[in-house]
Amino acid sequence: MRVNPNSMSDLLVALNQNKLQSQQASIEVATGRSVNAPSDNPTASALLVQNNDEATFNTSYLKTLGALQNQLSSADAALSSIGTVLQQAVTVGLSGTATLTDSGRAAIATQLQGIQAQLISLANGSYAGNYMFAGTNTNTPPFVVDNTSPSGVSYVGNTTVNQVSIGSGYTLAVNVPGSQIFTAPGHDIFLNMSNLITALQTNTGISAAVTSLSTASLYVSGQRGFFSNALTQAASQTTSLNANTTQIGQAQVDLAGADFATAASNLTQANIGTQATLAAIAKFAANSLFDYIK
């Protein structure tokens, strides 16, 4: 009887294969993933990297959207407050049309001057340290008292609209320059307030000044439509990104998720194979080749 001289090398090869299978199965059981290295499945690995990149972008976009929604809501709330103050000014101004004394009209004019200061403060509203109605010049208050201006107020922001990326190829305009909202030609709330104050002080054209201020107030309220629309778009994109992120998560599981039952069975079989191979190696080593030569 002749013994195959390659038996030991074959057994060592088998032992190494069992060891590799055992390691792979152990990793799958421990991680819950069938793809833990590119070599496990090159095609799946490439898709996993692509999906992971997309999920990372989604997370960034969602974070941006969260901040934008807070900013847009704050701007809308500020406009709501300004609208309320303007209506108060209109009501106060109307009372001036029925006031017959100079001192009464002067008192109303003084009250409106206080409201004017309140409007300037609201128009300089900020969110997270950035002035909301300054265009993109958000580090500086956009409205300043200026006695050389007919309205007594000057806009020192810019007219740039900030476009923010909220998705692949999807940008959203997130601001309206204060000059467009508060000092648009024919709808300048500060100029109309100033004209009403002057009308009360001179007892001339009070009713016309109140009407002009009321028209400007309606215009400002109409500007809230931009923020309402932007909030709707932001909410819709947030929903879309969350849904896409969920889909990516499921795709990751489908691509790399381990079958625990199969992995556990493979681990058991690999361990059994290892034990059997070690037993064969031990038996082979215990017998000399000369024991089989007859």
Topology overview:
Elements: H1 7-31, H2 42-97, H3 102-123, E1 126-127, E2 130-131, E3 143-145, E4 153-155, E5 163-167, E6 170-173, H4 178-182, H5 189-202, H6 206-222, H7 224-256, H8 260-286
Antiparallel strand pairs: 1-2, 3-4, 5-6
Based on Cα principal axes, name the global outline.
rod-shaped
**Class of the domain at 78-223, according to the CATH hierarchy?**
Mainly Alpha
Rounded to the nearest angstrom, the radius of gyration is 38 Å
Characterize the largest beta sheet: strand count, sense, and whether it forms a barrel.
Answer: 2 strands, antiparallel
Secondary structure: number of strands: 6
| Secondary structure category | mainly alpha
Kindly state the percentage of residues in helix: 55-70%
Instruction: List SSEs in N-to-C order.
Output: HHHEEEEEEHHHHH
Low-confidence stretches: none
Could you describe the 3D structure shown?
Helices cover 68% and strands 6% of the residues. The chain has 294 residues and is mainly α. The protein has a domain at 78-223: f41 fragment of flagellin, N-terminal domain (Up-down Bundle), CATH 1.20.1330.10. The strands form 3 sheets. Strands 1-2 form a two-stranded antiparallel ribbon. Helix 2 packs parallel to helix 5 (189-202) and helix 2 packs antiparallel against helix 6. The chain is rod-shaped. The N and C termini lie close together (7 Å).
